[in-house]
Amino acid sequence: MKKLYYSIGEVSEITSVEPHVLRYWETIFKDLSPRKNKAGNRTYREQDITLILKLKDLIQNKKYSTAGAQKKLEEENSGESAPKKNSELPAEAKKDLNEVRVFLEKLKEKL
């Protein structure tokens, strides 16, 4: 299900990252800055979710510190990083798979 904007709850469910962690990451990573609507609620876009999944992979899976993850992102943005391994899924594919997982879990609960 593609949407233009996602709430923090939806992003948390899609990425399996708690909302308080998402808010904390906003304070550290300048590239993660979701807009706020008139009510003051965060609205995340597809590119924000892709970045969150990348951060989650670096911090939670590869055990980078937040400073190390920030440095890695800066290297990737400037083109200095090593090429990706073919076995790694792109962040967009991971996001899509997580959305499917959430959908299937909700469907399973209804059965």
Automatic annotation (TrEMBL):
Annotated keywords: DNA-binding
Name of the protein: MerR family transcriptional regulator
Organism per entry: Rhodohalobacter sulfatireducens
Compositionally biased intervals (Basic and acidic residues): 82-93
Pfam families (UniProt xref): MerR_1
Region described as Disordered: 67-93
PROSITE patterns assigned: HTH_MERR_2 (PS50937)
Location of the HTH merR-type domain: 5-73
